Amino acid sequence: MIVIFGGAFNPPTKAHLAIYHHVKHHLDCRLFIYLPVSSHYTKRSLASNHHRYQMLSLLTQGLPDVMVSTMEFEDSDYRGTYQSLLRFQEKYPNEELAFLIGADNLPKLQKWINAKSLLAEFKFVVVNRHQTSLRDWIASDPFLKDYLDQFIILPDFDMPISSTEFREKPTPELTTPEVYEYIELYAIYRGLS
Description:
Elements: E1 2-7, H1 14-26, E2 31-36, H2 49-60, E3 66-68, H3 81-91, E4 97-102, H4 115-121, E5 123-127, H5 134-140, E6 151-154, H6 163-168, H7 177-186
Parallel strand pairs: 1-2, 1-4, 2-3, 4-5, 5-6
């Protein structure tokens, strides 16, 4: 299985790294792909595509079976997760693909671009952070219940670190030393708090 972890990674934190280890511990994951979203996706203050790619590369250096993809950076506009997964499926035609999300994204899935096709054609790995019975919740949701078998729910993951927390108060404890040094060198988040 190939697991694709999409997000802003603005900046990548120790939690983003811990999720990789959590997935590798619980799933037979041949390749783990970090897929940073392009700055075309949103108007919020994202560090440049270049800086986020460099930070993710620093975060993941030395990890086996990891790739940082620039696929969405190369698009002229945001196409959505479904289109990205279709392109990965073309690249890896004999592999099962799964998109990694946090449990907090479940209620929003029906609003994603091409949501029905996305859920029908691809697996979702769900990181549970609140020790809730996600399978029961999905089974009772009017939209998601038809796709229950598409979800792989991982055991509880507890690392309360967020990129937002870092941007509000940049502290070295929230990311790796290499990423923190890079952020300081280029003053990426200075003046945001």
